[in-house]
Amino acid sequence: MKIGIGLVYLIVIYNKMNNDTKRRMGLGYKELLSRAALMTETVRLIAYARYYKSLQINGLYYVHQVDGSNAIAICGPDHKTHHESTTFLLSQLHDKKCQIKTVEGHARNLKKFLDFLMFWLLEDEMESIHHVPVKSGGTYPLEVILLGFADYLRCIPNGYKPFSELKGSNHSIQWSMLKSIPLNKYAMAEGKVVPAVRNDHNQLRKVDWCEYSPGALAPILYTACAYLEFLRERTKRYVNLPIEQIPRKEIRESYSLISGTAGSRIRIVFDVENLAHDSGTAGPSGGKGRQGTPIDRSEVISEAEANSFFTFLNPYEDAQDLLLFTILRYFGLRPGEAANIQIDESSVPTNLEMYHSSREALVLSLLGNIKFIQEKGLHGNWVIHTGWKTKASQREVPLINHKAIDPYSGAEIHFPTQDQFTDILYWALVQRSDLMSHNHGKDHGFLFVSSSNNSRGKPLSEKGVYSKFNKLVNKLWVNSQNSIDLRSYYPHTFRHLFATSLCLRYRRPIEEISKWLGHSSVTITQNSYIHWIPETNTEIEKGEVAHMSKLYKEQADISERAMLSRGEEV
User: Which residues form the Tyr recombinase domain (predicted)?
Assistant: First the structure.
């Protein structure tokens, strides 16, 4: 797609439009177009970054949802419901029968798109955007908007939480309190700070500004495209929206009325991968295209902080929470993966009041995503089978038995023993049984259940994991008289602690860590954790980047030689 030439032509056409049409179009689109037409990608991004830094705003859009329900809406900075976007979400929920978790994802994506439209005053202008003439082969106005949105995503931080220092678990409404646009460090530096990662040959390579992975960018663009299509089909205001300007592609699907495998049909879908590619970022190419970006040290909870959090949990009253965060910390699961763990309810001991016999029965007979794998002799391990739909994420993670010396405090640290984990699991199942008694009906099989009043006994969602963590760290902050503050962390921090502990303290091979994390390549694991450096060096070179790079390379070479010696394909 000849984007640069097409955009320059659009500016010429725009300047020749009559004043009446210009008034209808306003100046927002023209401002966007002037920056989108910049031929050099770096210059274009710098121009966007400077524009976003210069804007003074009165808040951003935010997603409002009632916990434990399907009630969801998008509100503007003035706290009024944004009707078009909220109706779009409800149509996904009721007309398209999407799960609430999918709709929540659309809401988060759409909030970003509405922010972008607000910055450029485009929401009103889109009513008349079909008046803009387009030369054959040129870039369409809706393409300009979507490409500009993709560049905006490259400038904002991933996982940003406004006013994270404020007490309270719900940060949604706090988006409306912002007075400036949150930008990532590369946009704030206007290109003076260049992100870089190491490639497979341990060489530094310049990477994109974007903090989102390539696979995460396309779904956000898809939501924006689907929303524009909804506006044209379901509203009078945007009945003339030229939705045909959005690039599309054909995909062939196999189907059968019975088995779903016979025959084929053609389906037309938005070509969001092409949009992502045209903006300068690769589309979703799975693990092969991903390189990983270094994890900032501020995102990794320390052993001491994690111990403070776990000490705060009551092993009986908080049994489900203790098991949940034990799995995040010592198995390295993602919060959503942990929430999705299921058990075969028929394999759970019926008489949980019998402590010793029930614990023994769990080891011998518990089935589902979590079970005890007996090895030869008396040894065995608790193993969790987890993962999403991607092949790489499907994995079995064992509870490993390790002891080490903390390089910071000199204290001995270790993972829970198999027997200790059995005890944690037992008390969590006891509490689960009590919570499930409030859920009249068939056992849904999920290990973790909600304890909130309006959803007691129902499966715990990924959002519920975050809510639990936020409530606990806020409570810890109060109970410690403001001496232990973990409120800037997310549940995902335990996964980072798992990875960095295995690497630096237990010296596990990087290939092994990558497999347990469910990464699609060792490169992602290496680039994500290579810059995690200890605060003090208790051993020569320990924790230095050069030392870690050497360690990774040595481990990779050893594994490669071992695989070649067995005649396996590398």
Answer: 296-542
